């Protein structure tokens, strides 16, 4: 018997990968989460956490294998909901502080500590009175070559 006949490529199902076919619960789509309000997201989060608690109880009591595989999916869904909630909060804060003089620290660009401590371009370009006088009294000399 050859290798190709053992594999049986032709009879495999097309579409979703095998790890997605077996999972009982589908992952939540982030674009659907972004359309929901904060209250809806929080209620969904509460439901997911309750479901996770039930699945963990089933794991301890020796539940069905399909419930055990569902734990990972539910945890990922919880993470997605929390991520969307935090993204929405941050974007709302950015909108609120758009035209204010000072931004909260977590909304400022991170960069590096050295760059944040650096003088601004305006501060770095400022000159002392003495420097200004020296430049006006002794401007750069212009030389021309005679041919």
UniProtKB/TrEMBL annotation:
<dbReference type="InterPro" id="IPR036049">
    <property type="entry name" value="Ribosomal_uL29_sf"/>
</dbReference>
<dbReference type="GO" id="GO:0022625">
    <property type="term" value="C:cytosolic large ribosomal subunit"/>
</dbReference>
<dbReference type="GO" id="GO:0003729">
    <property type="term" value="F:mRNA binding"/>
</dbReference>
<protein>
    <recommendedName>
        <fullName>Ribosomal protein L35</fullName>
    </recommendedName>
</protein>
<dbReference type="GO" id="GO:0003735">
    <property type="term" value="F:structural constituent of ribosome"/>
</dbReference>
<dbReference type="InterPro" id="IPR045059">
    <property type="entry name" value="Ribosomal_uL29_euk"/>
</dbReference>
<dbReference type="GO" id="GO:0000463">
    <property type="term" value="P:maturation of LSU-rRNA from tricistronic rRNA transcript (SSU-rRNA, 5.8S rRNA, LSU-rRNA)"/>
</dbReference>
<dbReference type="InterPro" id="IPR001854">
    <property type="entry name" value="Ribosomal_uL29"/>
</dbReference>
<dbReference type="GO" id="GO:0006412">
    <property type="term" value="P:translation"/>
</dbReference>
<keyword id="KW-0687">Ribonucleoprotein</keyword>
<dbReference type="Pfam" id="PF00831">
    <property type="entry name" value="Ribosomal_L29"/>
</dbReference>
<keyword id="KW-0689">Ribosomal protein</keyword>
<comment type="similarity">
    <text>Belongs to the universal ribosomal protein uL29 family.</text>
</comment>
<feature type="region of interest" description="Disordered">
    <location>
        <begin position="1"/>
        <end position="21"/>
    </location>
</feature>
């Amino acid at each position: 018997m050859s290798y190709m006949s053992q594999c049986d490529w032709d009879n495999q199902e097309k579409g979703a990968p095998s790890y997605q076919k077996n999972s009982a619960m589908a992952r939540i789509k982030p674009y659907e989460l972004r359309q929901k309000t904060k209250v809806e997201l929080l209620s969904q989060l509460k439901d997911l956490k309750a479901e996770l608690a039930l699945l963990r109880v089933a794991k301890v009591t020796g539940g069905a294998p399909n419930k055990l595989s569902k734990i990972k999916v539910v945890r990922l869904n919880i993470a997605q909901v929390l991520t969307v909630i935090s993204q929405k909060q941050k974007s709302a804060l950015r909108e609120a502080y758009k035209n204010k003089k000072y931004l909260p620290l977590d909304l400022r660009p991170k960069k590096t500590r050295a760059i944040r401590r650096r003088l601004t371009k305006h501060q770095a370009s400022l000159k002392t009175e003495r420097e200004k006088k020296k430049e006006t009294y002794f401007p750069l000399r212009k030389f021309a070559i005679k041919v």
